[in-house]
Design goal:
Number of strands: 7
Helix content: 25-40%
Order of helices and strands: HHHEEEEEHHHEE
Strand order of the largest sheet: 5-7-6
Low-confidence stretches: none
Distance between the termini: 14 Å
Length: 195
């Protein structure tokens, strides 16, 4: 995202979004968060059109027109995943080294070992974190679930996950079905192209 962009420069595009998204954006305190939430809202609009969005169990959003989607934003990236089955997506900026210690509280023992043995522990930590978040977004459960109770590094969950690195970020997708040979397309867009 363009660091020089300010929310007032693009606030007119709020009118394109549903009232709930506008209210969510208004609650953000920081400029960058408002911009990323606007970008996420515009991604949803571009993907599902003007189909109303309803909330399912646990508050998970669905397009009334059918299809499943999940959005996430972090740092300078907003992302959306779309599929014909339940899907979850998370994107996170690589953490500072000091954050890695939370793996002891929130990661399954096998995931903790994975991070400790990794050549790049920060990236390994971020990959696990985004996988966990993507899984919880796919199920709609949220982080009230015991994060140590499931392991994203082994079967059968591992077959339903796709993780990639985007410069200083990790992005993970979790599908209700094994990903196998599913085509996954990642496109980078500037916020201006969504308007």
């Amino acid at each position: 995202m363009d660091d020089k962009l300010i929310f007032d420069d693009v606030s007119e595009y709020l009118a394109l979004l549903p009232q709930e998204r506008q209210e969510k954006i208004a609650r953000y305190r920081f400029e960058k968060d408002k911009l990323l939430s606007l970008a996420a809202g515009l991604l949803i609009r571009r993907t599902i059109g003007e189909s109303p969005i309803t909330l399912g169990e646990h508050g998970k959003p669905y397009a009334e027109s059918g299809g499943f989607f999940s959005v996430s934003h972090s740092g300078g990236i907003a992302a959306i995943a779309v599929d014909d089955t339940e899907i979850g997506l998370d994107v996170e900026k690589l953490p500072e080294e000091s954050r890695l210690k939370i793996a002891d509280r929130f990661y399954h023992p096998a995931e903790r070992d994975h991070v400790k043995r990794a050549d790049n522990p920060r990236r390994a930590f971020c990959e696990i974190w985004t996988r966990k978040e993507a899984y919880l977004k796919m199920t709609g459960e949220g982080i009230s679930t015991d994060l140590t109770a499931f392991d994203t590094t082994c079967s059968p969950l591992k077959e339903r996950l796709y993780t990639t690195s985007l410069d200083k970020y990790c992005l993970s997708i979790c599908s209700a079905e094994p990903i196998g040979d599913k085509a996954i397309y990642i496109s980078e867009l500037e916020l201006k192209s969504l308007m």
